[in-house]
Amino acid sequence: QVQLVESGGGLVQPGGSLRLSCAASGIIFSIYDMGWYRQAPGKPRELVASSDSGGRTNYADSVKGRFTISRDNAKNTVYLQMNSLKPEDTAVYYCNAPLGRFVRFGWGQGTQVTVSS
User: Fold this and answer.
1) What distances in angstroms separate CA 40 from CA 12, 94, 95, one per listed residue?
2) What is the structure's pLDDT at 55?
3) What angle do CA 51, 38, 108 make, to 5 degrees?
4) How is residue 116 annotated by DSSP?
5) Which of 102, 100, 78 minimizes the C-alpha distance to 29?
6) Percentage helix, strand, coil for the chain under 3-state DSSP, each rounded to 5
7) What is the C-alpha to C-alpha distance for residues 74 and 82, in angstroms, rounded to an integer?
């Protein structure tokens, strides 16, 4: 049974930083591309960062230069380092394995990120 457990969210002031973690179980983690998604209230879920199985990364324009995705295959964990946070980054953040426009696995509970002064 596949399980994705996100953690590390919280309340942070604009300009601050957070590091999110996503621990995966029930899969051979190293063979999958992994991504971080976010969903703000009233908006569709969007992919903000991805790392393929070889560690190559890609970012949405809205987070490029501020967010960094990384992975530790030995720990079955993917991370999202978020710097220079803005109020518009406020959302619930999820991880999953991208498959084109879709994802491979069911969604975890996500972790709430709130950027506010």
Assistant:
1) 16, 11, 15
2) 87
3) 80
4) -
5) 78
6) 10, 50, 45
7) 22
Burial of 61 (0-12, 13-18, 19+ CB in 10 A): exposed
The helix or strand, by DSSP H or E, that contains position 24, with its residue range, turns out to be: strand 18-25
Q: What whole-number distance in Å separates Cα of residue 80 and Cα of residue 100?
A: 21
Local structure of residue 50 (DSSP, 8 states): E
Q: Which two tokens stand for residue 58?
A: 């890609």
Tens of pLDDT, residue by residue over 45-92, are 999 999 999 889 999 999 999 999 999 999 999 999 999 999 999 999
Q: What tokens were used for 115? A: 């950027």
3-class DSSP state of 27: coil
Distances (CA, A) of 108 to 15, 68, 84: 27, 21, 26
Res 87: pLDDT: 97
Q: Output phi, psi for 28, to 5 deg.
A: -85, 90
